[in-house]
């Protein structure tokens, strides 16, 4: 008789706005993943979070790292609080699953990836858009070459974030806390998904700006041209200044069909006249409420990470795949500032 495999022990650091879908996902995964502790500096908010989701509060981060039953740490803090947290986890031999972005700057992100590699621990980055049913279906078709060669790409992220209640909060839209604006905080999900389907971008030519809707340090509008390594060309527009906010859209013009991902839906218009639709109707957090989306995608990604650790493989989204997005964002911002083409 084969012994039942024990649950995957997880510790959680951070319990702010971004923690809600993770908590919902972890409750749905209780049969496979055990949250053995949650830690946050603000004790009152920690106790409230743990009571709401029925998780145990950890006495300290050090106590979680000392727990031999905790195999991995889920890091949900703002990006300016990550580097020391990850270094300590890696030093304790704990695997790390972390919210996007990796850090505020690419240099800091590279240090985090390097520290996990040096310690021999697995690093995964949350990019839940890859785990939508429509996204996975398109990824499979692209990997099999069913759509033929990719010739052109169009990415639109027409989101809305209000000044009051969002950008008025301390640190929002700042380099010190967030590391940037619409690209690194919002559009990074769509950029990661795009790169996972298209392969790398070779060069960009972009315009970036802050519109009159917002008073913030960083950009809320970016438009640009993309040159892909495989010879395809493309364009993007990303903003948080499009009231009331709409679903992001990624279109791949391929040799045999045009594939359009809109939110959680995929439409395939084949050159032979067929039309195919895959996916489900869902919100994506493009409006004033940034958390207005289901937790299913987080659940799938957390489950993939735990399975990857147990199986000794890399998760779907890794530190290295995330670095590719960081470098693309850097190139877009630099191009917008300099007004010229920039090689990624």
From TrEMBL:
PANTHER family: D-GLUCOSIDE 3-DEHYDROGENASE, UDP-N-ACETYL-2-AMINO-2-DEOXY-D-GLUCURONATE OXIDASE. Gene3D superfamilies: Dihydrodipicolinate Reductase, domain 2 (3.30.360.10), NAD(P)-binding Rossmann-like Domain (3.40.50.720). Residues 137-259 form the GFO/IDH/MocA-like oxidoreductase domain. It holds the Pfam family GFO_IDH_MocA_C3. This is Gfo/Idh/MocA family oxidoreductase. Residues 9-125 form the Gfo/Idh/MocA-like oxidoreductase N-terminal domain. InterPro entries: Gfo/Idh/MocA-like_OxRdtase_N (IPR000683), Gfo/Idh/MocA_Oxidoreductase (IPR052515), GFO_IDH_MocA-like_dom (IPR055170), NAD(P)-bd_dom_sf (IPR036291). It comes from the Bacteria.
């Amino acid at each position: 008789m084969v012994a039942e495999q024990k649950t995957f022990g997880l510790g959680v650091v951070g319990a702010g706005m971004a923690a809600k879908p993770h908590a919902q996902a972890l409750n749905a995964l209780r049969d496979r993943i055990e949250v053995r502790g949650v830690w946050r500096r603000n004790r009152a908010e920690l106790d409230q979070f743990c009571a709401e989701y029925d998780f145990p509060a950890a006495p300290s981060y050090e106590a979680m790292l000392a727990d031999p039953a905790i195999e991995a740490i889920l890091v949900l803090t703002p990006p300016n609080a990550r580097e020391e947290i990850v270094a300590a986890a890696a030093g304790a031999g704990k695997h790390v699953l972390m919210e996007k972005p990796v850090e505020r700057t690419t240099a800091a992100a590279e240090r985090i990836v390097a520290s996990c590699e040096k310690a021999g621990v697995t690093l995964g980055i949350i990019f839940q858009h890859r785990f939508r049913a429509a996204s996975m279906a398109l990824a499979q078709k692209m990997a099999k070459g069913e759509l033929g060669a990719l010739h052109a790409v169009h990415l639109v992220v027409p989101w809305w974030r209000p000044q009051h209640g969002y950008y008025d909060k301390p640190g929002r839209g700042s380099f010190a806390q967030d590391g940037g604006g619409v690209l690194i905080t919002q559009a990074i999900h769509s950029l990661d998904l795009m790169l996972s389907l298209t392969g790398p971008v070779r060069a960009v030519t972009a315009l970036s700006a802050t519109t009159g809707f917002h008073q913030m340090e960083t950009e809320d509008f970016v438009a640009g041209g993309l040159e892909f390594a495989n010879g395809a060309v493309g364009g993007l527009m990303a903003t948080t200044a499009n009231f009331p906010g709409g679903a992001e859209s990624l279109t791949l013009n391929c040799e045999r069909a045009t594939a359009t991902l809109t939110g959680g839906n995929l439409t395939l218009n084949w050159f032979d006249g067929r039309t195919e639709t895959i996916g489900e109707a869902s919100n994506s957090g493009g409006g004033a409420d940034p958390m207005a989306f289901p937790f299913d995608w987080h659940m799938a990604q957390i489950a993939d990470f735990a399975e990857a650790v147990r199986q000794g493989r890399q998760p779907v989204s890794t530190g290295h795949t995330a670095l590719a997005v960081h470098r693309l964002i850097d190139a877009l911002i630099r191009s917008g500032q300099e007004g010229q083409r920039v090689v990624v």
